[in-house]
């Protein structure tokens, strides 16, 4: 079993700020208030808040001592984000950490003065959240892993795990602005490995059982689940439905595999949030967000759940297991 550490790289070649810098002052002053705006639920976002807290603690910002958190959850409902962002702005917040491009956009509309640190898997330039990764400008910076571009690699890994696969279901949310990007990436990748792609849609949690019924009726042999706010919030239901449908699946977030999914490949949002703490630390010490380049991960994790493979009567090739960063046995 091997583990690779999450590594961030700064656009423009600026060196990373050390988390071991001088400890922040806390005596005689009120704790600095950090807003946490999540599009997900309290349960599904818990690992991300914990990662952010740990990253800040490593930099000397201890919750309840010199920093305090104001936390808001949208529970998968994107239309709640603007109201939650506006609420945070009224709480004397020093910096807002926002998950997803939708969360960042809501926070940016709510304030053009309070610094915003993104922790997202979307492209911030596509949605005009920053001027560029190297020079974001304005009040937004942070960390992003543009996972739409990983669809081809995930399909390749799934094909290696299920070599007889000829028909793959791709779960999509038609309300997501990134669905077209996923399809643009996954379509040619599926053709290159001679796999027919079955696109299945679900806009809401209640539509997920029907989506899996469509996969079964369409004779799908495996499943790929891209990053999506609703999907990530409903990860436990999706994993259960995949198990009931006996579909080997690869996911865009580690939580799915921890809940019993087969495979995860990506940067992992927990690592992104922990790395985003570097930006929060620098801003709390006086840096301007517009001067801090947006960072991207340069390494990605492959996690395989062998218990799930056994339940599916699936034998994972030793060559694939050897490349895994973590194997759940």
- Please write the string of helix (H) and strand (E) elements: EEHEHEHEEHEHEHEHHEHEHEEHHE
The chain-level structural class is alpha/beta
Average pLDDT, rounded to a whole number, is 90
Rg (C-alpha, Å) = 20 Å
Give me the CATH fold name of the largest domain. Answer: Rossmann fold
Shape: elongated
Question: What fraction strand?
Answer: 15-25%
This entry's quaternary arrangement is single chain
Supply the CATH superfamily name of the largest domain: Response regulator
Helix percent reads 25-40%
Tally of contiguous helical segments: 12
Could you list some keywords that capture this structure?
single chain; alpha/beta; Rossmann fold; 2 domains; 7-stranded mixed beta sheet; 36% helix; elongated; disordered N terminus
How would you characterize the overall build of this protein?
This protein is of the alpha/beta class. The chain folds into 2 domains: 8-145 and 269-297, Rossmann fold, CATH 3.40.50; 148-266 and 302-328, 3-Layer(aba) Sandwich (Rossmann fold). It contains 12 helices and 14 strands. The strands form 3 sheets. A 7-stranded mixed sheet has the order 8-7-9-10-11-13-14, with helices on both faces. Strands 3-2-4-5-6 form a 5-stranded parallel sheet, with helices on both faces. A two-stranded antiparallel sheet has the order 1-12. Helix 1 packs across helix 10, helix 2 crosses helix 3 (100-110) and helix 4 (151-161) crosses helix 5 (179-192). The longest helix has 17 residues, at 42-58. The termini are close together. Mean pLDDT is 90; it is low at 1-21.
């Amino acid at each position: 079993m091997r583990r690779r550490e999450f590594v961030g790289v700064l656009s423009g070649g600026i060196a990373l700020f050390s988390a071991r810098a001088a400890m922040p002052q806390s005596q005689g002053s009120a704790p600095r208030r950090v807003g946490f705006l999540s599009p997900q639920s309290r349960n599904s976002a818990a690992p991300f808040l914990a990662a952010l807290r740990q990253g800040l603690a490593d930099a000397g910002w201890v919750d309840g001592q010199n920093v305090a958190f104001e936390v808001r959850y949208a529970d998968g409902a994107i239309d709640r984000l603007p109201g939650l962002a506006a609420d945070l702005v009224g709480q004397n917040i020093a910096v807002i950490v926002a998950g997803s491009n939708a969360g960042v956009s809501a926070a940016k509309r709510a304030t053009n003065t309070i610094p915003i640190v993104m922790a997202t898997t979307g492209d911030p330039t596509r949605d005009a959240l920053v001027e560029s990764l190297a020079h974001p400008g304005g009040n937004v910076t942070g960390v992003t892993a543009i996972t739409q571009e990983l669809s081809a690699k995930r399909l390749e890994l799934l094909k290696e795990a299920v070599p007889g696969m000829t028909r793959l279901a791709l779960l999509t949310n038609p309300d997501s602005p990134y669905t077209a990007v996923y399809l643009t990436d996954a379509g040619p990748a599926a053709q290159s490995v001679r796999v027919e792609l079955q696109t299945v849609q679900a806009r809401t949690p209640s539509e997920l059982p029907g989506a899996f019924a469509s996969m079964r009726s369409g004779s799908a042999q495996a499943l790929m689940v891209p990053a999506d706010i609703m999907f990530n919030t409903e990860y436990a239901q999706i994993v259960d439905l995949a198990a009931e449908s006996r579909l080997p699946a690869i996911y865009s977030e580690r939580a799915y595999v921890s809940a019993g999914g087969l495979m995860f490949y990506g940067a992992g949002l927990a690592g992104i949030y922990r790395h985003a703490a570097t930006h929060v630390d620098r801003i709390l010490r006086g840096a301007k967000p517009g001067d801090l380049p947006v960072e991207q991960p340069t390494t990605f994790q492959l996690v395989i759940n062998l218990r799930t493979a056994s339940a599916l009567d699936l034998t994972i090739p030793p060559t694939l297991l050897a490349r895994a960063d973590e194997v759940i046995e």
